[in-house]
Q: What sequence folds into this?
């Protein structure tokens, strides 16, 4: 099964993306907690793409494709913004974030803990992020 | 996201209704950044109708926690749905923040 959505880089579209993930995964019988975790991981990546990679430029788009079978769900996100530099990523220290009153920086940590595999690649001007969740 | 308050003595109860994501969490941040909130000794957050939270929502609470602690203001979450609590647990925030089951429990802890 494959399903695809394209939205403009506006943070108001995060709700649309979450509804799309929920609808697409309806036939996959996941627990409420697992489904919420998956929606969260996709939402986090989309929020980063919209806000950081594309600076909330609503003339730009991002595309989410969901493929699934009985063993695995794969989310593929494509955009043309500034690529995420995985090499520069540092796991947050929550105690430091609390002490310094830092608002951001925990989204990717959530994604890494929820998903079984997270891949980032670049093809020409297109950035591709693939999230894998094993369900079998 | 709808945010409602109820004030009793030095306690403010903030009821969250809807989804806290990178878009809607701005509202909550404005609410918690309001200097008048520092007048209260206790902030109780009713999460009964909070259906979703992302890192942006968590980040709002993370960013105000130290300020509240320094001012000896107790921040207590109650009525949290299991799927929302699970998001706090993934990052270990359930161990750093006070999350209880019911309003009564929240009041008891607030008055300790």
A:
């Amino acid at each position: 099964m494959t399903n695809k959505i394209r939205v403009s880089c506006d943070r108001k579209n995060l709700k649309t993306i979450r509804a799309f993930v929920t609808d697409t995964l309806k036939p996959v019988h996941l627990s409420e907690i697992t489904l919420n975790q998956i929606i969260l991981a996709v939402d986090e990546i989309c929020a980063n793409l919209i806000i950081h990679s594309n600076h909330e430029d609503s003339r730009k788009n991002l595309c989410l494709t969901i493929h699934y079978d009985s063993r695995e769900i794969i989310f593929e996100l494509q955009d043309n913004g500034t690529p995420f530099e995985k090499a520069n990523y540092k796991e947050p220290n929550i105690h430091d974030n609390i002490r310094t009153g830092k608002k951001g920086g925990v989204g990717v940590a959530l994604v890494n803990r929820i998903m079984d595999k997270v891949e980032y690649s670049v093809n020409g001007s297109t950035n591709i992020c693939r999230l894998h969740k094993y369900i079998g | 996201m709808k945010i409602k308050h109820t004030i009793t003595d030095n306690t403010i109860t903030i009821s969250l209704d809807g989804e806290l994501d990178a878009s809607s969490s701005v509202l909550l941040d404005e609410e918690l950044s309001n200097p008048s909130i520092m007048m209260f000794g206790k902030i109780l957050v009713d999460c009964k109708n909070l259906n979703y939270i992302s890192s942006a929502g968590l980040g709002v609470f993370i960013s105000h926690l130290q300020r509240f602690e320094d001012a000896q203001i107790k921040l207590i979450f109650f009525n949290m749905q299991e799927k929302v609590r699970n998001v706090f647990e993934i990052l270990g925030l359930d161990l750093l923040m006070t999350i209880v089951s019911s309003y009564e429990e929240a009041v008891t802890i607030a008055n300790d």
Summary: Residues 22 and 36 of chain A are 9 Å apart (CA to CA).
